Amino acid sequence: MIDQRLLPVEEIWREYDDYRDIAEAIRTMVVRGAPAIGVAAAFGAAFGARDIEAESFENFCRKMENVCAVLAETRPTAVNLFWALERIKLFVKTHSELPLADLKEKLLQLALEMAAEDEKINRAMGAWGEPLIPENARVLTHCNAGALATAGYGTALGVIRSAAKAGKTVRVFADETRPWLQGARLTAWELQQDGIPVTLICDNMAGFLMSRGEIDCVIVGADRIAANGDVANKIGTYTLAVLCKEHQLPFYVAAPLSTIDFSLADGSAIPIEERGAEEVILHGGKRLAPDGIEVRNPAFDITPARLVTAIISEHGVVRGDYLSGLADLRQKGRTHDS
Ligand code: MRU
Questions:
Q1: Which of 8, 21, 23, 221 could form a Cys-Cys staple with 189, CB 3.0–4.6 A?
Q2: Which pLDDT value is given to residue 111?
Q3: Which of 71, 104, 123 is the last residue of a domain?
C-alpha cells in the first residue's frame, strides 16, 4: 500500500503480511477511502486465515471470527469494510467441504478478485456518470474519492477521469478537506499526476465560487448510503449539498453497490466516526489553537437524500425515489453476479 499519511511529500510503499498490521494500517489511515478499506480488510482476513492453526473446520471458523473482529474494529463508518468481511465469512461458511489448506488458498484468491472487481466497478461507474459531466465543466469535489480511495480509478474521480477520456474539457476544484486534508494532499496529487486540470480551494471558498457562477456541479463519493438514499461521506459534504440547492447546481454521489447499506432505513443510524482532537488542533506538529481548547472532530456527515440529484453506481444512475431505485440496483447486481 502507498502510505497515504505521507503523500504528497513522500511516496512510500509499505508491504503487509499480518492481519493485525493491516488492521493498524486501516485504523491509522495508511489506507483510507471506503472501497480501499474494504479491499485491504479482505486481504487482512485472507492473511489471517492463512495463519490459523486449526484441527477442525469449526475451530477454524471460531478463529476466523476473531480475525474478522480485529479488522472490523478499525473504523466504523465505511460499510465496505463490513461488506468485505461478510463476503469472506460467507465464503468460508459455504465451503466447509474443502480441506483447510485449499480454503485458505481460495480466500486469498477471493481477496485478489475483490481488488480486481473494484477497479472494474469504478470503470463501469465512470461510464454511467460521464454523460452527466458537461463539456467545459468546472466540477467541485470533496475529500479523495479517487484511485487512492479504491483499488484503482476511483468513484467520483473515476467519473471525472471518464469525462476527460471522452474528450471533454474538465477543471476540478478540489476542496482541501480539513482536518485530514484528503483533498489538498491526495486529490490534488492524483489529478496532477493524471494531467487533469485541478484548482485547490479551502473548504470555506466553495459557496463564494458557486455564487459567482464558477462551479457547474459537485461530485463526491460515499462511505455508506442508507436504503432511502441518505449519504454518509466526509465531513463537509452536507454543507456542499446545501450550497448546491441554494445555487441550483447538481449534487452527484458516485458509489458502488457495496457502499449501500440496505439494513438501514435512513442515515440517522449510520455510525459517525469521531476522531482525535489533535487532527483539528495541530497542523504539521504545530499547535493552531489555545492549549486545552475543547474540540469536536466528526469525520463524516449525513446528506439527506432529498439534496442528492443522482446516485451513480456500477449498474446505472438513480434519481428521485431512491428507496425503489436503489432496491432495483441491488436486483440488477444480483442478476449480474448469477
Ligand atoms: O476518512 P476517509 O479519508 O477514509 O474518508 C473517505 C471519504 O469520505 C471518501 O469520500 C469516501 O470513502 C468515498 S471514496 C471512493
A1: 8
A2: 98
A3: 123
